Amino acid sequence: MQKKMSTNSNLIVRAAAEIISLFLGAIAVIYLSRIVGPEYLGFIAATIAILLFLSRLADGGLTALAMQQLAREDEKLDVLLAITIPLKLASSIVLVGLSLLTINLITIDSRLYYFITISIFTVFFETCAPTWVFIALGKITIASIIRIGQGVLYTVAIFIFIQNTDDWRYLPHLTLLNAFLNFGIATYFLFYCKLWSFDTSLFTKGYFHRIFVFYAQAFHFLKANLSTFVYMSFDRLLLYYFTTAHTVGIYEAAYKIIQPFYAISEVVTPTMFRELAQSIKQGTLYAVFARYVVAMSLFTIPLGFFLLFFSEFVIIFLYGTAFAESVPCLMILGFVITFGFTSGIIVLPFSAWNMPREYGNSVFSGNILNIILNTLLIPIAGAVGSALAALAAKVMVTITGYMYFKRATDYPVLKDFAYFFIASFIPLIAIYGLSLIITNVVVLMIVYGTVYIGIVMFVYKTYFKNHKLHGAAFTDSLRAVIERNGRT
């Protein structure tokens, strides 16, 4: 009971931090978009996509592996820091150098060149930030303080430096500042909590062998991270290549509306990561996973249905008529969250359960489909084509991930999903009917939310709360995977 209360407390703290950060971030993005317009929003989106790709390459999957091993208490922190920090730093230096050389050898827009050359050093800070340590150790309060501190300072900087359209020149500097804030605050707390310690004996006792082994284990996480990058950010680069910065900005504006919903996973998954990781040893999968499904699904699965009706109102209200072209994109991208979370609920626990191969393969399937469809659809349909490709990728990851999931556990996750889909669809039908006699959009939003919450509360009381926990929970297949990866 005490452990459950602690988890709930961490979840509340983490959620509060994300809500505050998202509120600040939303204000900053809306303000920024209205000031600089779609074109410069497109340039910064393309630049950030490049930086994310380089950061993931430099990380090499090491962060995800180190976080897993620390959470499972399979390795000590001083060992993990001694292995990962030098590798990340060296990789960052090489990639930044190669990137600067490349953009000086090719011909690109002078404004994009300006953005990249200034913000490229973000790679160092993104790759080496030790924020993962606090998540793996269950120190959620500190992780939340880092998140809020970074959000507050970055938002203040936006309002100080961006006053008119010509201030777009400050955007790459602000991108660099944002990454530095995360790195600096996290590093401060690492020293403050006396967690900064290197096992220097590794440098003289088979260090290069340990590096090889660690990279081999981290490969599946790297594959998953790169795949995640492809269907979350790579489309900006393809959009820029096939269309214009304006089109990238139109798509980015729509995507920024759904992006905060990913923070739900950033709240729930880190908070429950340790519990999920140890549920094998403790035999508590059903109890843990039921809470995980509800927390992840409540505000995400209905988004696609909600935005089918309300996308135009949301775009015009937030960005103004200059971004009216974003409406069709948003109607599709809402379902990217719906199916993004069905896939996430199934696949993200693989990391905690020591199933990196299954995790990587699941996400990689969506990656391949996303690349193919983006290449085919963007030249034809522009930003809408990119949105369709993103949706198809999420559906593919859900299907592929479920094939692995059902071999690992007998938990009835599809039945759980079905209840949330029904609860999301019924109020959509209701507001379509009401819209014939009620034109007030706010009233229709309230009706949708009220009906949805009412259905979910009924389902929770009759199904989730009284869930009969039958079955072996973990199958022999999962136990074989654990043995294959050297765990007991």
Q: Low-confidence parts, pLDDT < 50 over ≥5 residues?
A: 1-5, 468-472
Strand content of the residues, in percent? Answer: under 5%
Give the domain tally.
1
Mean pLDDT across every amino acid position: 85
Radius of gyration: 23 Å
Span of the ends, CA to CA: 26 Å
Please state the overall shape, judged from the principal axes of the Cα atoms: globular
Helix content: over 70%
* Number of contiguous helices: 19
What is the H-and-E element order?
HHHHHHHHHHHHHHHHHHH
Strand runs, count: 0
Estimated structural class: mainly alpha
The largest β sheet comes out as:
none
Plain-language structure description:
It is a single chain. The two termini are 26 Å apart. The chain is globular. The protein has one domain (2-484). Residues 1-5 and 468-472 have low confidence and may be disordered. It has 19 helices and no strands. With 488 residues, it is mainly alpha-helical.
